[in-house]
Structure formats: C-alpha cells, structure tokens
Design goal:
The complex is a heterodimer.
Chain A: E1 4-8, H1 12-23, E2 29-34, H2 49-52, H3 65-70, E3 73-77, E4 81-85, E5 90-93, E6 98-100, E7 103-106, E8 125-126, H4 131-140, E9 147-150, H5 154-165, E10 170-174, H6 186-198, E11 202-205, E12 209-215, E13 218-224, E14 229-231, E15 234-237, H7 246-250, E16 259-260, E17 272-274, E18 279-283, E19 288-290, H8 295-313, E20 326-331, E21 334-340, E22 350-356, E23 363-369, E24 372-379, H9 382-393, H10 400-404
Parallel strand pairs in A: 1-2, 1-7, 2-3, 7-17, 8-15, 9-10, 9-15, 10-11, 16-18
Antiparallel strand pairs in A: 4-5, 5-6, 12-13, 13-14, 18-19, 20-21, 21-24, 22-23, 23-24
Helix pairs in contact in A: 1-8
Chain B: E1 2-7, E2 13-18, H1 24-30, E3 50-53, H2 58-61, H3 66-73, E4 82-84, E5 97-100
Parallel strand pairs in B: 1-5
Antiparallel strand pairs in B: 1-2, 3-4, 3-5
The chains are: A alpha/beta, B alpha+beta.
Bound molecules: flavin-adenine dinucleotide and FE2/S2 (inorganic) cluster.
C-alpha cells in the first residue's frame, strides 16, 4: 500500500517540504493542500517590486507547472483544511470532505494580526500577506490622499517606501519609540527612522491608532493616541503576524507562539512535522527557541520537515535543522541584510560594535553575547553580511576592537 | 526570445528558450535547470545564483554593480567572469549565451 504525505499550506515552506520529500526518495503520494488558489509564490515582492508594478504576476511563481508534474506532487489548491483528526489520520476541509494521510506536515504560515478598534472593518483598510492583498493595495497607490501605515515593521516600512516612490503622502504610526524595535538594534532603527524622514515620510513614534474614522463605511481619517486627527484615504496595517496554529492546537498538538517542534521539525505527534512561519523550534546554535518569519527559514526548515517525513517512512534517522537564520529588506535604494538572530534588546552579556562600510550610506552592526558573535545587520554592505554569516557559523569569539577599525580588511577576520 | 545554454559543473548541458525581460536566473528556474538555488528570488541578497559567463559573452552581459561585486567576492570560487544570474536581464542580444555553473552555491 502506498503512503500519503499530506502538507497543509502551499506556501514557501510547504513547497520546500514537498520537493525535499520527493528528493529524499519518498515514493508515496504527496498532496500539497493550499487555501489560496495560486500555486506557491514568493511573498517578498508583494511589498517591493510587485507592488511597484515592476514585476508581472508570472514572475512570482516559485516553480513552473512542469515541476509539479515531474516531481509527482498533487496540488490541491483553493482548499482550506479546518480539522485534523490525529487518531483517524484524516483531514477535513471546509466543505466537509475528508483526506486521509499517513504523515502530515503543517506549513500554514503566519497571517497578519488584525486590528480590533472602531472602524477596523471599513473599506480602505488594508493588510498585506497575499497576492490578492498586494493587488488591492496597488490599486490605491494611484488615488489621492494620505496613506496611513500602522506599525513601523518591515512590511509597513517597505510599503511606505513604495508609496513615497509613487508620490503619495505617507504617515507612519509606531507605538514604540523606534521603528523595527522588535527585530533590530538602536543603530539600525535610528538609521531607518532618518531614512524615511529624509524621503518625506511623516514618521510618528510613540504614537498609536485609536480609531479609524469613516464616511459611508469608507476610511476618511484616523484618530491617534495623542488625540490628534488626520484625514486619509487608506490605512495599511502592519502590526505583525501571528502563527496560524488554530487547527494544530484544536487537534491537541503542543503550541506556544507557534506549533512546537523539536530540532528535527517534528511536533508532539510522531507522524506530524511543522515548518516555516508557523513553527516554533529550538535552535541548537542559539540554545533558545525561535519562531522566524523569513524565506530562508521557510526553505530550510521545510527541507528538514520534508526530508524527515521521507526518512521516517523509510525507517531512517532524521536530519537536524540548524541553518543560520538570515533575512533581507529593501527600502528605497537601501538594502538591509541580517545574518543570525539578534538577542532580545537588553539581554545581559550583550555587546555591539558599529563598523562603517566602504560606500557612503553603508555600515554594519555586529552583536555579541558573552564574546560570541550572534548577529550582523548590514546596511548596503553585503561584504559585512557574508563575512558575518561565516563568522557566526564558525562559532568563534570575535575581536570587536579590530572589527570597529575600518582600516582592518574584513576578509582578514575570516 | 534568446537561446541560453547552462552547463553544470559535471558537463551536463541545458538549452532553454528564455523570454526577454526576465533574468538569466529566472529563465533557469522556469526551465528546471538544476544548480541555481536563487533563495532570495532575485533580490541580489543571497548569492545562490552564481554563474560563470562564457568569456565571449562578457561584453554583452554588461557590468556588475557594486553590490553584486561584493556578494561575488564571497561566493564559492569566484572568477573574473562570475556573475549573479539574477542581475543579468535576458534580451534578444543574448541569443546564444553560454553560462557555466559552479560546483556549489554559497
Ligand atoms: C509582504 C511580505 C514581504 C516579505 N518580505 C520578506 C523579505 O524581504 N525577506 C524574507 O526573508 N521574508 C520576507 N517575508 C516573509 C516570508 O514571505 C515568509 O516568511 C514566508 O512566506 C513563510 O513561508 P510559509 O510557507 O511558512 O508561509 P506562507 O508562505 O504564508 O504559506 C502558508 C500558506 O498556507 C495556507 N494555509 C494556511 N492555513 C491553511 C489551511 N488551514 N488549509 C490550507 N491552507 C492553509 C495559506 O493560505 C498560505 O498560502 C515577507 C512576507 C510578506 C507578507
Ligand atoms: S537570486 Fe539571490 S542573489 Fe540572485
């Protein structure tokens, strides 16, 4: 009898898992089940080149149609799974139809956190996760009136940059005292605050949204936590994403800020793995749990989940997921590349040094914990990013004084 | 349209018909040429789309930008004719282009 490997979520991690399971020699059926109607596509351009209109839709697809045929991956799109029955090993979709599985991978991603305040359901309030969201948002870039961006995270700032380039007035509201506070250190946050202000963004820090004002159920303005009001044509909400763990938790899988997996991407059920934005995993390198929202993590952890499902089917030992995290963001003509995972701000034993880059607007921030290099944030400085990646992976201690000295060749540190 | 030949490090050749306007990386991915990972999807952020451009074609494929240059500096076995294939746009003038793939990416 042939086994079925079912994968819930046909995104970056689900695709990687499917391809890797086949590559690892899995001979049974592979069913890639996705709620969206589109075959797996890349999300990063949705807030960058695609939103700008510089990129046609067919360039978003991660694989050509022939790939799914040749790898014999059955695509089941436009189908949302609403329940996992772990005893009966069946999935149920919205229409009540059942799908049997032998092994399962959960790759449901992390949709945007939604606002719950007056006016949040009005027309003209946008979120950005899917192709549809990006198409809807693109349509308003040609309309007059201010665009208010709620949240100065990566997505909010990238949209702000695109909207400015399209000539729109943009106000960004951020409740924290710095943009990117959750993910970056003070130097990088300050750099992006200045960058956006230089580009004409009205960046309001320490300011939140209180209410969305509407006229005929359409956005007409916002009221802020400082009491002021601002007329606007649209609101883009970028206040973070939450792991889509509902069906996993309902099925009794251990969840805590994501579906909890071990270092082989296995959940608390020996027939179920999880990967990508939805998975909360122990990083052998960092010695703590991480849940990452990035393409490289989705690719590599998806690979581990798919490989290990195939290996389990063949009675072989699993591989460990220990790829170094990395990430990038493009805003205006600035490229940020991050290697590693930065310790949360104010972790005891943390130190950092700023190294100027070779070109004008370029520098890098190197963060250590008790002397060991943890992460590098590189602004327009790919050399620092790539050297940093290697140095972190080498797990050595690093001489911060030598690093801070721009006359020292980076390569000599390797 | 332009005919592009990708040669793997083991000598296997893949000839594809590439549409003008996409990158040499995208033309490879769309035609399932192995050996180009392209993790960042063409954002010039990952350096996993490294190729060696056949010396006869170096004039036509253009120059490397400074970002690309620094990325390549740290790629696996960079050479003078190294390029990030996501940074070369296919045009009709590239009809006949030959690129070789490194033994590994990154
Ligand atoms: C606008 C934007 C810009 C980004 N930019 C960058 C960037 O520059 N660099 C970077 O590294 N990362 C970036 N990211 C993050 C990156 O795209 C994600 O980390 C990555 O897509 C995660 O992959 P995933 O497979 O875990 O989730 P997803 O790609 O979100 O895929 C999950 C899929 O599962 C489906 N699904 C969910 N529940 C069910 C269900 N019950 N039944 C069936 N299907 C279901 C969803 O519809 C979705 O299609 C960006 C993200 C966004 C939204
Ligand atoms: S695809 Fe990532 S650098 Fe070319």
């Amino acid at each position: 009898m042939t086994e079925t490997l079912a994968i819930i979520g046909a995104g970056q991690a689900g695709l990687s898992a499917a391809a890797s399971a086949r590559q690892e020699g899995f001979e049974g059926r592979i069913r890639l089940i996705g709620a969206e109607a589109t075959p797996p596509y890349q999300r990063p351009p949705l807030s960058k080149a695609y939103l700008k209109g510089e990129f046609e839709i067919d360039r978003l697809h991660l694989k050509p149609a022939e790939f799914y045929e040749s790898a014999d991956i059955e695509m089941d799109l436009g189908r949302r799974i609403v329940a996992i029955d772990r005893d009966g090993k069946t999935l149920t979709d919205e229409a009540g139809a059942e799908i049997a599985y032998d092994r399962l991978i959960i790759a449901t991603g992390a949709p945007p956190r939604r606002l719950s305040l007056p006016g949040a359901d009005a027309e003209g309030v946008f979120y950005l996760r899917t192709l549809k969201d990006s198409d809807a948002l693109r349509a308003i870039l040609d309309v007059d009136g201010t665009i208010v961006v709620v949240g100065a995270g990566y997505i909010g700032l990238e949209v702000a940059a695109v909207a400015r380039a399209a000539g729109r007035d943009v106000t960004v509201l951020e409740i924290a005292d710095q943009p990117l506070k959750r993910v970056a250190g003070p130097a990088v946050s300050a750099f992006f605050a200045n960058l956006h202000r230089d580009e004409g963004v009205d960046l309001r820090l320490g300011t939140g949204l209180e209410e969305i004002e509407t006229t005929h159920a359409r956005v007409s303005g916002v009221r802020l936590t400082d009491g002021s009001r601002l007329p606007c044509a649209a609101v883009l909400v970028g206040v973070g994403a939450a792991p889509d763990q509902g069906i996993a938790a309902d099925a009794g899988l251990d969840c805590d800020n994501g579906v909890l997996v071990d270092e082989t991407a296995l959940t608390s059920d020996p027939a179920i793995w999880a990967a990508g934005d939805v998975a909360n995993f122990p990083s052998p390198f960092y010695g703590r749990r991480l849940r990452l929202e990035s393409v490289p993590n989705a690719i590599e952890q998806g690979k581990a989940a798919g490989t290990n499902a195939a290996r389990a089917a063949a009675g072989r030992d699993p591989i460990v997921y220990d790829a170094l995290p990395w990430f990038w963001s493009d805003q205006y003509d600035v490229k940020l590349q991050t290697a590693g995972a930065r310790p949360p701000n104010e972790t005891p034993g943390m130190a950092e040094v700023i190294r100027p880059g070779a070109a004008g607007r370029s520098f890098s921030v190197w963060t250590t914990l008790n002397g060991a290099l943890q992460s590098v944030d590189a602004i327009n400085d790919p050399a620092a990013f790539l050297v940093g990646k290697r140095l972190i992976a080498a797990r050595g201690n690093i001489d911060l004084d030598a690093l801070a000295d721009p006359s020292q060749d980076l390569k000599s540190l390797l | 349209m332009a005919k592009i030949t990708y040669i793997e490090s083991n000598g296997a050749e893949h000839v594809v018909e590439a549409q003008a306007g996409v990158s040499v990386m995208e033309a490879a991915v769309r035609n399932m040429v192995p050996g180009i990972d392209a993790d960042c999807g063409g954002a010039c952020a990952c350096a996993t789309c490294h190729v060696y451009v056949d010396p006869d074609w170096l004039d036509k494929t253009g120059k490397r930008e400074s970002m690309e240059e620094s990325m390549l500096d740290f790629a696996y076995e960079p050479k003078d004719n190294s390029r990030l294939s996501c940074q070369i746009t296919v045009t009709d003038a590239l009809d006949g282009l030959v690129v070789r793939l490194p033994e590994q990416q990154g």
